[in-house]
Amino acid sequence: MASSPGPSTPILPASSALLTPSTFTTTTTTTSGPFQNFDFPPYTLFPPFYTLQPNLTTRARQLDLWSTLVTSYHAHHHLFRLNLSTPPPDLFTSPTKARSLSPTNIRVLLDHLASTGKVEWIPAATKGEESHAVWVWWRSAGEWADEVYGWVDGTGQKGSVLTVYELLEEEEGAVSGRNWVGMEDAMFRKVLGVLVKRGKAQVFGEADGGGVKFF
Q1: Structural domains of the chain ordered from first start
Q2: How distant is the alpha carbon of residue 75 from its chain centre?
Q3: Which PANTHER family match (predicted)?
């Protein structure tokens, strides 16, 4: 039987609201500053949430809650990238500013998210170096592919050749206001790769000027 943690170890009790479905309701605690109007779930007010728990069952539940929080936060703010060096100022700190998830534990969390496909580590610029940023897949690449192809079909673009730049253009472009706008080129190409595998697209070239033909 596992030994009990010492008095200094915060515990997430199994009976706590932290571990029940009701924790997914919103609270009146909202962000301020550049990232506003995100309703943080009640469990973010519980200090032990910001320390990874030693009990494996409790930790698994805790990581699942963090996964939901990270993806919901990025979807709400329409963000696709998370940098360890400059994470969103409010995401890993409690609303009361009393506790924060440590950089080491943030990496553990992101490794967990990567194992479930919710994030993807971006290769470091120098081969062999540790990555310090992830793409956040708050929708899967397959779901994004469905959305892109739905737009292609709905706007009569089948048979057309569009540039990757056009498909990502934010300012007054044909795709202005589409949910995938704001993705980095390399991330978006993974979405296009899904369409290629489905036989619904062909990609030409590697740079922003590269083209995509849809079938």
Answers
A1: 17-136 (1.10.10.570), 141-214 (1.10.10.10)
A2: 7
A3: VACUOLAR PROTEIN SORTING-ASSOCIATED PROTEIN VPS25, VACUOLAR PROTEIN-SORTING-ASSOCIATED PROTEIN 25
